Amino acid sequence: MGKTSTSEKRKGFKKYILGFWILFFVGILSVVFIFLLASWGALGKMPSFEELENPETNLATEVISADGQTLGKYFKENRTPINYEDLPDHLVNALVATEDERFYSHSGIDAKGTLRAAIYLGSRGGASTITQQLSKLLFTDPNKSGTFNRIIQKVKEWVIAVRLEEQYAKNEIIAMYLNKMDFLYNAIGIRSASRIYFGKEPGELSIEESATLVAMLKNPSLYNPVKEQFKDNSRQRRNQVFVQMEKNGFLTTKVKDSLQELTLATNFSPEEHDDGIATYFRAYVQEFMKDWIEDNPKPDGSSYSMYRDGLKIYTTVDFKMQTYAETAVERHLRNLQKEFNHQNENNKIAPFRDIDASEIEGILQKGIRNSDRYKRMKRRGIDEDSIMATFNRKREMRLFSWEGPIDTLMTPKDSIRYYKSFLNTGMMSMTPQTGEVKAWVGGVNYKFFKYEHVKQAKRQVGSTFKPFVYATAIDQLHLSPCYQLPNQPYTIPKGKHGVMEEDWTPSNAGNDYGGMKTLKEALAESINTITARVINKTGPESVISLIDKLGIDTSNIIPVAAIALGTADISVYEMVSAYSTFANKGVYVKPYAVQRIEDKNGTILYQHKPESRDVLSEESAYVTINLLEGVTKFGSGRRLRTNSDYAKNTEAYKRAVTGYPYAFDNPIAGKTGTTQNQSDGWFIGMVPNLATGVWVGGEDRSVHFPTITYGQGATLALPIWGMYMKDVYADESLDISKEEFEEPENLSIQIDCDEFTDEETQEEKVAQPDFEIDF
């Protein structure tokens, strides 16, 4: 019986052993089968070879300055991928040491880490490799809940990870992973994160900054380095990254200890569509791109996307010049607004002047109907009475101020009136010879003032129009800047130029009359009566024909003599490009801002083609420049030459112009402009290789200074030009000219008035009716 019992026991043991191995191999085969099912797509859609080779990713379109700086982006996900070569070594080392120590030795799955995680149930760290994390980011759905779904997701991650390792080099996987990660605040990918959290490119990151970003990978919200309540978490996690780097031989103990003592420092610069530099310019480029995309489909017939396709838009704007322009606008308008508010303290209808209550209500009603709030409610089908009721109910809102945003309780209608009280601006700078736009400031703050004042807005140009009248006379009649006309009241009778219905007698500022004036003196002093005499010689039709060739929209300009004094509404964009023709020897070059467009692979999709035409003779353009130089030598622009005007000014005046000494001694051609009631102030100034125009005024023409002291172009707009050019000249890398404008060979028109003696070219003083009208 003993032998039988032993034999039976042995047979039973063999059955157990056999059963174990059967179960073991079934288990192995089951696991293999599960992985096969996953790879075949039976457990859910798996990426194809093509998708693995080109993983679909939303890439931000980047707007790039002429000097290679990022001006801004258009995105649904703010991601701009970079290559592995652009990553600093300490960033890669920190990533590998912290997230996947055996990254370079496994093939997508870390068997040792997986076994450890299984035995200790994850208490000693997870087993997910960098490649698995990438596969999860690219191709799996993390939103499915439930244990079974999570297991299936993990299986798919493993399969995809192995395929990724077969498809890509290790360095490529690291770059793809860092380009895909979401670091919060629209910081998708390492390049956006570097710019947003530290204001620099990834290659410029310090070792502690790299460690801070790697620390966020575990949980971006919990280890957020900019939110006060999470800063301690972020610092502790950053220091743990240093520990891992020491453990893996990337840091010595001494260096680790010193790094751990560093405070947590960031330079947080969020990249929202309304934030950053050149916001108005980027809005213009966005409209340009919409038109281009509509006319230029992809080869497969689909449309490009500014928000997903990772396009690169190379522009002509210079980052430094744009910065100088925005700085000049802020400095001047911040001070000017203080004086404007001061002068409105006793104005019962502030910020308006010279209009009655019904006109004010009309302005506010128009503002309501132009508001985004009104348009949104209209689209939703809300009736008019209900919409208007909402504009009279107080609500929480954030308002613009030069001292920073104000959170307050106010009705939307009152907020419209509040915003009417701000002076705004439009400024553009371009290279006359090429048409390249170098700076573009469309307003004071894009987040709060969306209406753009470089190209979108058109305002009365005042005396900045007069050079076109003089240029027409020079080109047609060969007049010299030394040609003299009587400074006396002058009337152009009705019907003289076909459409005038009554006599026109312009008046001079301050009723200043007397003597003979050269054309150079008349333009410098902006004498209306002499400008009227000049346009009477050329006819308004000839002037309109000229400005049409100079790129100005003339469709709404009526050919009457009064246009000589600047009654037309013209944009800053048009005025700067027109003036540039004088500096470019009479050749008009159409301004442009987009140099080329590339796709994410660097293929050129668009290349700018210059547009130019001859408008004036080189001689006529140069003589016009000579006239405009007189404005800055002894006319309304002379304050660019000296500081003496400021020494004797009142404290009130100093509030508006503090810190604006210019003392330029190089040739400058320019013209100020002031419109009726001081509603618009202009200055357009040129040096040989740069033309810049500035407009300043209220959104409505009834918003203005009460007197010419502050309301003239020399006070409103010229200081912005002066401050901008001071900074531009201080930056020698920009190479902006201080030379003379080039004089043409064989100049036949006399420009030196000291030598001008031809009495026959002087117009005799002719008696005119002794009456005038205000203009």
Topology (elements, then pairings):
Layout: H1 2-40, H2 49-53, E1 61-64, E2 70-74, H3 89-99, H4 111-119, H5 130-139, H6 147-167, H7 170-180, H8 190-198, H9 207-216, H10 231-247, H11 253-260, H12 279-295, E3 312-315, H13 319-343, H14 357-370, H15 372-379, H16 384-390, E4 395-399, E5 406-410, H17 412-420, E6 423-430, E7 437-441, E8 459-460, H18 466-477, E9 484-486, E10 516-518, H19 519-524, H20 528-538, H21 540-549, E11 569-570, H22 572-583, E12 587-589, E13 594-598, E14 604-607, E15 612-614, H23 618-634, H24 644-647, H25 651-657, E16 669-674, E17 680-687, E18 690-698, H26 708-711, H27 713-716, H28 718-730
Parallel strand pairs: 1-3
Antiparallel strand pairs: 1-2, 3-13, 4-5, 6-7, 6-18, 8-11, 9-10, 12-15, 13-14, 16-17, 17-18
Helix pairs in contact: 1-6, 3-9, 3-10, 5-6, 5-7, 9-10, 10-11, 13-25, 13-28, 14-17, 18-20, 18-23
Produce a short descriptive summary.
The protein is α+β, with helices and mostly antiparallel strands. Helices cover 43% and strands 11% of the residues.
Give an overview of the whole structure.
By secondary structure, this protein is an alpha+beta fold. It has 4 domains: 15-44; 79-270, Penicillin binding protein transpeptidase fold (Orthogonal Bundle), CATH 1.10.3810.10; 352-415, no CATH class; 424-761, Beta-lactamase, CATH 3.40.710. The protein has 28 helices and 18 strands. The longest helix is centred in the N-terminal third of the chain and has 39 residues, at 2-40. The protein starts with a helix and ends in a 45-residue tail after the last helix.
